Amino acid sequence: MRLREDCNYIVARAIQAVQPDTAVRRALEGKAFACGRVILIAIGKAAWSMAHAARQALGDRIGGGMVITKYGHAMGDIPGLTIAEAGHPVPDENSFRATEAALALTAGLTADDTVLLLISGGGS
Length: 124
Prior knowledge:
Blueprint: H1 2-17, H2 20-28, E1 38-43, H3 47-58, E2 62-70, E3 81-86, H4 93-105, E4 114-119
Parallel strand pairs: 1-2, 1-4, 2-3
Helix pairs in contact: 2-3
């Protein structure tokens, strides 16, 4: 019986370690960026959880951004980010509008600025 418990524990920990938010948090904690702005763009079904984790890891270092996710997948506001729900797997008018808004955020960037692009699921 102990072997089954150990296996279940290992599987559960492995699954948690590769969750999008866990992976993003691990990748960004302590990360240094150039002196310019950091703009976050997140797309896909896990976009909200990845953007939330990025915001937790980087805080106010994120100077704005856009989260585009499937209807019903946004779990509230994230300070400094615009959240848009849109069609999946077939893009709809909200998909195109949100994409245009995300692209507009990248206009006028300089070599010192960073675009943090987080892509999950079908968005890739």
